[in-house]
């Protein structure tokens, strides 16, 4: 009796490869859109940078992750509401 690597359903290796590629692309796209906002290290780097840009008081900044065609961090100084938010880009690191 032969043993099948892909199971008794008869999944071909081409289907397994296609499904793997689809999940890989979906995972990469999800990280591109939402990864920095949910990754603690990237969020901490963005929060530190935003805090420095707004004067160094942790109560005076608002940090937002904007999901758009080009996702980015948006930093706003709450002590000056008339000032437009600053676009900090996708990758904020030290």
Explained architecture:
The chain has helices at 13-38, 40-53, and strands spanning 61-66, 72-77, 86-89. It has 94 residues and is of the alpha+beta class. It has one domain. It has a 3-stranded antiparallel β-sheet, covered by helices on one side. Strand 1 (61-66) and strand 2 (72-77) form a beta hairpin. The longest helix is centred in the N-terminal third of the chain and has 26 residues, at 13-38.
How would you classify the helix and strand content by structural class? alpha+beta
Average pLDDT, to the nearest integer?
84
Number of structural domains: 1
Largest sheet: 3 strands, antiparallel
- Give the number of DSSP strands: 3
Helix content: 40-55%
Task: Write a concise synopsis of the structure shown.
This protein has 94 residues and is of the alpha+beta class.
């Amino acid at each position: 009796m032969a043993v099948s690597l892909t199971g008794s359903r008869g999944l071909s290796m081409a289907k397994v490869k296609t499904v793997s590629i689809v999940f890989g692309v979906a995972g990469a796209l999800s990280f591109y859109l939402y990864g920095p906002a949910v990754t603690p290290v990237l969020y901490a780097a963005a929060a530190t940078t935003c805090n420095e840009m707004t004067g160094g008081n942790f109560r005076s900044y608002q940090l937002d992750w904007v999901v758009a065609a080009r996702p980015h961090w948006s930093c706003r100084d709450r002590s000056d509401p008339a000032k437009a938010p600053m676009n900090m880009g996708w990758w904020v690191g030290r």
